[in-house]
Amino acid sequence: MEKIVVALGGNAILTDNPSAEGQIQALRETAGYLVELVKQDKQLIVSHGNGPQVGNLLLQQSASDSEKNPAMPLDTCVAMTQGSIGYWLQKSLMEALHAEGLEKSAVSLITQIVVDPEDPAFDQPSKPIGPFVDQEEAEKQMKETDEIFIEDSGRGYRKVVPSPQPIDIVEAEVIQAMVDQGIIPIAAGGGGIPVLSDGERYVGVEAVIDKDFTSAKLAELIDADTLLILTGVSHAYINYNQTDELKIEDISVGEMKDYIEQGHFGAGSMLPKVKAAVSFVENKPEGKAVITSLENIGKFLEEGSATVITS
C-alpha cells in the first residue's frame, strides 16, 4: 500500500468564516477529497497548517492577559491549535470514512519537533505572528522586552520569531506504529511544536516551523512513498501571473532546483513548498513529491495532472 504524507494548506481549514463551525465545515469538505485517496488504497498520514488559527489564538491570549490569567507561550499555543484542528479533522475524516463504508480510524496526535539550538534562524527571526500594532506600540514593546517587531506588508508591525528547520520528530515511532496498524495519523500540525533537547527532556521554544518542511521530514522518517503538498493551485508555475506563465508538470529535482535559483517562487507562498518537495525526494530518490490543490485530487488520481517531482 502506497504511503502518502498529505500536507494540508490553510485554505483546507479556514475560509471566510473563522468560527469553529465554519472551520469544521471546511474540514468536512476537505475530508471528502482525502477519502478519495483512501478509496484508492492509499495509506494516509495527514499534516496541516495553523497560521491563521494560532494568530487568532495569540490575539485572544493577548487580550485576556493578566496576573490571574496569564497569556500562554507560543509553543503551548501551537499545541492548542494542533489539538483543536486535529479534533475537527479527526471527526470529519471519521464521518467521511464511515459514509463510504471504510473501516478505518483517524487519530490526531500532539507532535513535538526537535530543532537545533544553533540553527541560524534563531539569530534572524523572520516569521511574523500575532496581532498587528502601530509603530509606537512596536517600539514600546521592543524597549520593554527582547522581542523583535518588523513592518509587515504595509499593514502595521508584527512580532517576528525564528523559523528553524526540523531535525527530528519526537513521536515518529508512534506515528509509524499507527501507520503499521492501518490508522490514519493526523500529526505535526502547524509544523509541530518546536522543542530543544537537553538529553533528558524536551523544552518548548518560541519559534514557528514551516509545516511543509516538517511534512517532508515526517515523510522521510516514516519512509513514505509520496509527499503530497496541497495548496490553492493545481500546479506550481514559472513566471506565475505573467503573460508567459507556464505550469510545471513532471520535473526532476535538478530542474526544480534551477527554477528555485532563478527566483520563480514567492518566499511566502510557493518557495517553501518546492524546497520541501525537493528535500524529500533528495532524501528518498525512489519517492516522489506532488504539489497540487484539493480540488485537483480526482484529476491527479485519474490523469496524473499535478506538479510531480522525482529524482
From TrEMBL:
Gene3D superfamilies: Acetylglutamate kinase-like. CDD domains: AAK_CK. Keywords: Arginine metabolism, Kinase, Transferase. It catalyses: hydrogencarbonate + NH4(+) + ATP = carbamoyl phosphate + ADP + H2O + H(+). GO terms for molecular function: carbamate kinase activity. It comes from the Bacteria. Residues 3-284 form the Aspartate/glutamate/uridylate kinase domain. GO terms for biological process: L-arginine deiminase pathway. Pathway: Metabolic intermediate metabolism; carbamoyl phosphate degradation; CO(2) and NH(3) from carbamoyl phosphate: step 1/1. InterPro entries: AceGlu_kinase-like_sf, Asp/Glu/Uridylate_kinase, Carb_kinase. The keyword Transferase applies. GO terms for cellular component: cytosol. NCBIfam families: arcC, PRK12352.1. Belongs to the carbamate kinase family. This is Carbamate kinase. It comes from Atopococcus tabaci. The lineage of its organism: Bacteria, Bacillati, Bacillota, Bacilli, Lactobacillales.
